User: Fold these one by one.
Assistant:
Number 1:
Amino acid sequence: MRVALVSLHKWEEPCLVGEKGAGTIFFSHCNLRCVYCQNFSVSQDGFGAEISVERLAEIFIEQQNRGAANIELVTPTHYVDKICAAIDLAKTRGLSLPIVWNSNGYENLETLELLRGRIDIFLPDLKYFDEEPAKIFSNAPNYFAVASAAIKKMFELVGSVKFDGNKMIRGMIVRHLILPNFRRDSIKIVDWLHETFGDEIFISLMNQYTPIFRAGEFKKINRALTTFEYQSVIEHAANIGVKNCFVQIGKTADKNFIPNFNLDGVNSV
């Protein structure tokens, strides 16, 4: 496995961060090729350091000792076998935190079945409804068909959201990053999520799109999201009765929010 950063991350959804932050572990590489990826140095260029299953289990315990609200595995899918082994090992050593699977949603059902009993919270993206932007911007044929089936499977594995006070301990939050010029695609996604899951999950509507990496090669997405585009999706969600929804306020489309991938916490002290 390759890992680029281990951190206490305070900029996730409020129910995931607790007092000190989510215990994020950013894995290197990705099975998508999003032209606007803000973490491209990790996802596309593969920056990171190699670690063993043994070391990953140690990192889980270290994050727990730091006071992390959970163990959040970021873009983990391609290392699923080793991650499962590390989870099992860490639990024999006292790991008790909820484990979060933060993925792009483009996953097969066999992979997800391996996570049964190991993952408490699923945090997938649902990026596109229509086929064209999925192919052009992420090189992901049949994205919605694959991701929607995966998200249904995730729900089967963890069920409805459960909280301990203000902290989520089980369930699913589906993230959707709204792209400039694609608000109608976003509305279709909100409709599908609400029709399929109702109030059993949370939706997180994100306005933090930043034209970075190769976005400048594509005219439609080579700008920031407008207030109108974002508000129209939020208003639609409210109008159809969505209750469990996170929204972003203020200037979030800023490179300063991109993590500093510097290998902190990756290697043994």
Number 2:
Amino acid sequence: MDVISDGNRIALFLKLQFLEGKKRKELFNQYPPKVVYVSSSRIKCAKNGDFDKYDSSAIAYGWFIWEKGYTGDTVIKWFN
């Protein structure tokens, strides 16, 4: 079953660690993200929006953008 039509996009905000791993390499080879937008600064994220529990973030995040039907190389860009 198709979730989206050709040319449509899915965007996920994920830890950059999502790029790691042999199984993910297989996934990325079959379904490469069109663009990964890397945050140039550490973004403070909090589970359930509870920012009082989290003083700072040592984790790097980015937006991973897939476009259905895209088969080219992934482009890396930066924001903020």
Number 3:
Amino acid sequence: MILAGIDIGTNALRLLIAEMRKKGSRVEFRPIHEERRITRLGEGLVNSGRLSPPAIARTLQALKEFHAVVTEHPVDKVIAVATSAVREAGNRQLFLDRLREETGLEAEVILGEEEARRTLKGVRYGLRADDRNIFVMDIGGGSTEWMVVTDGEIRGMKTVGIGVVKLTDRALASDPLSDADQHRLIRGIEETIGPILKSLGSFSGHRLIGTAGTVTTLAALELGMTVYEASRVQNTSLGLEQIEAWYRTLVGMSLNERRGLAGLEKGREDLIIPGTALLMTAMRLLGAREVVVSEYGLKEGILIDWFEKNVAN
């Protein structure tokens, strides 16, 4: 069976078309086509509470192009989900109506806990059997999720309404970022995520796994990639000292200087600073010395979850 999954995120859109099958007790898939577009659907949402007309227009145009790609393949089912920006927006129904009218796509708006559950399915698929004791962090555009697996069982899932787009809108008031703005950024992150991480229990004995654009971009920067290679990024380990060094480098550069960095995706030149600050702060609070990078996440989890529910079982 061929499925297409579309992740309509606060910052980026992701498309995955894959051939799905059941092998024994396990669901497996073979990727056929993948795309990612940064459209910043949630830009300005933190201040207005609404999706802006330019952000809607950018996102719908990209989704029209995704839909055109889907129609070029023998896809049996399209599963589209919308996350933080759409679920929080006062005009979300307007966006969903226009999405249906202009692209033919119907999107399910999922809560943070459901986003975490499906993301975890994708991450664990990429880790294969090495997933019995993991602490997963998914840094999104509008929210961040944490998932804890102990002895192979899910022990906790939490979501908090901060992500790279929201933090950029709130905290990046200077370029390069001033010492005062850096202090406010880190302090705000600590105050927001500290209680969440504490509520999830001890990190001892777990590996920290990071998924989504911030951690994959940091891996690409560390590897000096001029062309992004997902296979090289998957399972790369980044030490806390490396992440701290990248944070110091990035905040010391102007927006234009960051645009020239090999491995930094276009459109992420400002977002990489709050994303790195969020990852770095979480690692310090957890006492984690390294993070393992996962290329797998929500877009894979969307397909695995639907196939398990509707076909495999």
Number 4:
Amino acid sequence: MNERHHQRLNQIFSDLADEIAVPPSRYREAKERYDAVGAWLDEADSELAPYKPIIYPQGSFAVGTAVRPLGSDEYDVDAVCLLQLSTAQVTQKKLKSLVGNRLKHPQSRYKNMIDPPEGSRRCWTIHYAESTKFHLDVLPAIPDDYRWLLDLGVPYELAESAICITDSKTWDIDPNWPRSNPKGYAAWFKSQMQMRLDEAKYAHAKALLRGIDEAKYAHEMEIRAEVERIEDFDVQTPLQQLIQILKRHRDLRYNGDDDKPISIIITTLAAQAYSNEANIGEAILNVVPRMRGQIGQRNGVFWVPNPVNPQENFADKWAEKQRKAQLFFEWLNDLEQEYRELLTDTGFEKVSGYLVEAFGQRDGEAAMAKFASRASQGSATTVVLTQRKSQEPTKSRIEPPSRPSRPWRP
């Protein structure tokens, strides 16, 4: 491994992650938006008030891996609207209507912002002013009886937030409610990077206090107090940066292809393969080659289990359409090869062109400009990186099957 190139690549990819990432201001804006929706749903005269509605984020905004939209795309924020009802008290159709009717109430500020007016398959989508490039998907939900997850070995602190959700495509033909657990997944994801998250918050708190403390070093108690005020989205861990880079690489490579690798699989495999790497350079070097080792098989079917519901296979569509698996492994193989090539002398000479091609002109050129500016000022950070031994021998690399298998069912 060329240590000097790796140090430089760590700096370049860190700058690239900054360009790709959604800034903290957008996370705050998203929080203000869904908190405002929650307040409207829970007003004293609301028909939902007796059911104590709670709204919270899910998806990439919940785990801090959202990326800045490309082109004319909008910020897509997903939120759960949880009502304290049971499946014995309400049907899926009724639950969806309860939330939708409140959002479209004559006095609601959202009544003309719902599109489509009848709602989508699972959510109600609120489109804000076009200039904000922002929409919010609100998913109606009720608490699930989580004891079945405990029987599967899911820890109580992750299982207790399980929910039942609505699905207009199946509610007339299947009496069973669809199940989900986005809050449990977010808690699991955070646990995979907790040490680095705590470190990042501590460093951020010290930097904030240093700017106002004449001695330039705050007392430990002051730092700890400041840490408590820092939101998770105010800082980034190497795991989050890695996932953002992987998602943007995927987006540029497979733009418009419905069979492209999906974000939940990328996020889950990266989080499972992460071993507290200290920076993005180490994460790319070590985590990406370990991701394939997290993919299992059950009865000949590829299996990427939901860490908070082992019966759910995030890769279930791979068995239905073999091309999805082929593209994923093709993409993963190429990622490993591309990074190894950048570590060579000839590869590093082409890094600027690679970034533009793989991540887009704006972000690629911005990352290189930052690196060049830092280098010209002699302030490039020296980073010592160590490559971990591969946990999987080359001969055991998982490859897609020759033909699709039938989905496995427990």
